[in-house]
Design goal:
3-stranded parallel sheet, single chain, CheY-like_superfamily, alpha/beta, Two component transcriptional regulator
């Protein structure tokens, strides 16, 4: 399963990435909204894990 992890915190993002990869999952980790939008277009993830407090993202 391909997962797009969008998390700006280094420690949290790395920990989640490692835990998911250890379970055999394909994890693409990005830290910025621009990178997330690019990866959405090119990698077609099956699951997205999103930091709702990502800097620069407006909460509607």
């Amino acid at each position: 399963m391909k997962i797009l992890l969008i998390e700006d915190d280094l420690d949290l993002g790395n920990g989640v990435r490692i835990a998911l990869a250890d379970q055999g999952l394909d994890v693409i980790w990005v830290r910025r909204k621009e990178d997330a939008l690019h990866q959405l277009a090119v990698c077609a993830p099956e699951l997205i894990l999103l930091d709702l407090g990502l800097p620069g993202m407006a909460m509607a």
